[in-house]
Request: fold
Amino acid sequence: MALDFGDVLTRAWQITWKNKIFWVFGIFAIVVSYLFLPLGLAPSVSIFMFEGTPFSIDEPVFWIGYLGIFLLILIVAFVVGALAQAAISLGVLRIEQGTEKFSFGELFKASQPLFWRFLGVMSLYAGGLLLFMVAVWGLQMLVSIFTLGLGTICLTPLSILIYPLMAVVYGWMEQALASIVVDDLGVFDAVQRGWRVFRANLMPVILMTLILYIGTGLVSGLVSIPLMAPFFAFFFTIIEGVEASRTIWIVSLLCAVIYLPFLAVFQSVALTFMKSGWILTYLRLTRNVETDVVVSTSA
Reply:
């Protein structure tokens, strides 16, 4: 089925801008993911914090605790992200059905039955993609060991294939997630339905994946550049060959913290736009624009 990209993207932006309640769900998900920022800086900052003390980051207990905190934040971010996406997706569908206004609490409560299914589908795709990447990495390591590194060159195209594979996985996953909201499907039924829609509309879904993921990703990357100030400060001190100054770290970190709220709002808008685009894409590909969409009352 032909997909009018201009119509979908224009409508997605209208929904995003008019319904700022969706941004709140996005902000919750984005803020939790920001916990990775101080965690990423922790090893470098700890060098200065514990200077002159018996404690060292070379201690195994430091890295065990570091890994534990990393996994905890990863799980929390994944769970909150699933809840935010379920709420936004349901809200977009209800707007397309004609609902004009709803409260944060109402949408949060209504999206709870969808949450576990969203979490299940996202876990399946994330786990599958992770296993594939680990398998590729392991194969490269083995070939590198047995060929003294020469075989790695031959396997380079295999690494490049990861990127188109990710486009396929994301496009398929988004169709599966949309089917949960629109058609009230379970996890495995949604995966099957998502694949059928993806396979029947391969080029439109792939192109929409490139627009929504790569397009918004590039813009978000540009907007995120000021957050690199702490890293620039750290590498600047190394290049200059001087001891890292606590003052430089404090100033750069303060600048990053001040900028974070603005970035969180921007990224929540981007998330809302992406989810709106995917729900609209699914509706356009599976139903006539004029046809009313029916969603389960349990959603």
Observations:
- Residues 289-299 have pLDDT under 50 and may be disordered.
- The two ends are 27 Å apart (CA to CA).
- The chain has one domain: 5-286.
